[in-house]
Amino acid sequence: MLKTFPLGGIHPPENKLTAGKAIETAGIPASVSIPLSQHIGAPAVALVKKGDTVRTGQKIAESKGFISACIHSPVSGKVNRTDSLIDTSGYRQEMIVIDTEGDEWDESIDRSPGIKREITAAPAEIIKKCHEAGIVGMGGATFPSHVKLSVPDGKKCEVLIINGVECEPWLTSDHRLMLEKGEEILVGISIMMKALNVTSAMVGIENNKTDAIDRMGTLARSFSGISVHALKVKYPQGAEKQLIKALINREVPSGRLPVDVGAVVHNVGTAFAVYEAVQKNKPLFERVVTVTGKSLARPGNFLARTGTPVSMLIEAAGGLPGDTGKIINGGPMMGKALTGTSVPVVKGTSGIIVIPAADAERSPAGPCIRCAKCVTGCPMNLEPFLLMSLSAAGHVERAGSNKIADCMECGSCSYICPARRPLLDYIRLGKGSYIKLLRERKLKN
Ligand code: SF4
Ligand code: SF4
What we know:
This protein is of the alpha/beta class. It has helices spanning 123-132, 145-148, 173-180, 182-196, 210-220, 240-248, 268-280, 310-316, 357-360, 373-377, 384-392, 396-401, 412-416, 423-444, and strands at residues 23-25, 31-35, 45-46, 53-54, 59-62, 71-72, 77-86, 92-100, 159-163, 201-206, 226-231, 263-267, 286-292, 300-305, 324-329, 336-337, 351-356. The protein has 14 helices and 17 strands. The site of one iron/sulfur cluster (SF4) has 15 residues, from α13 and α14. The site of one iron/sulfur cluster has 13 residues, from α10.
């Protein structure tokens, strides 16, 4: 029997239209807007000013503190300005705008063909290189990778878990990366194993990607300590706690981290970025983005530079259909609607989904019929109907004591609710208020 997590989960339609579409280069935009915050943690601090000339891969913003990430120019050209512009979240943030001139790469980047398998960098050097290269979690979480590779004193990592699950419907960027860059990913995993001082790594892939399971499994035979595991198709199999439970049968307690149960989890896209950073000295300034939707003429998987306007990717996928009702940044379960298409691709952009107007409408919500489907579907053992009521009524403390902070915002409850109640929308609000309350208390004490 295939491994999976035992509690909750749902089976939305997969709609992986682009699984068979090889990665193609999106092209270089005439101008890019680079947000200074593309990661969890403190925004980076700009190192360039209006009029400066930059090369592709040159560092243009320095990480501020340990939990932060450096940012590199995805193009060569001239800095036009630093400006407050709308990002994918719909809010304004500081961005460096660069007008492209050619594509001249920083000479420190090794652009020679061929895969470099021999790992010469020492653990501390690997972590430093990941920090310098601005590597963040590529599954969408965007947590700085050098932090996750630095195991805190007193803790021990026993196994590195690699997330090749890609359980969000529609998205296929990780799937294609495993098929087309499998060997580089495995070198990246070996590099992370060295940094973490572990001898075992497990790659989990959902069983709807049998070609990737075969490819990665075959390639892994020539790598020491790496095993590949087919997992049952169930959303949210790719969530950290659910993946750990499925692969090593350990439970991460509420409020604790994977390393507390001896595991560190990274995404396959992150492993590829680590390979490029450590073996080729290439910082993170481009990524694979799935651009998809039933109404698109040419849905596909595109290698896009950060800062590329979403509109350019949609053009590459055949242009915006006239009947578009909504455009989602990320997957349909955890992604958020975009307010416009001029916003830039960032390090965490895994997909863009174009939804026709007829499918974008939400059915009106009805009263709760106490069917408990949201409870049985919740992978975190929460009571979503109760959390929604508490959030709506502003009972922040009670929401907290009912573990609202454990909600990973997977959307399973909203998806499964027969009354179409906007559970996640309210739970997000309540969770935000509760976390704010905890912070304020911490500041006072
Ligand atoms: S969004 Fe939160 S409450 Fe709803 S199913 Fe997911 S973890 Fe549970
Ligand atoms: S699934 Fe919807 S209708 Fe059923 S208990 Fe939960 S909130 Fe109520």
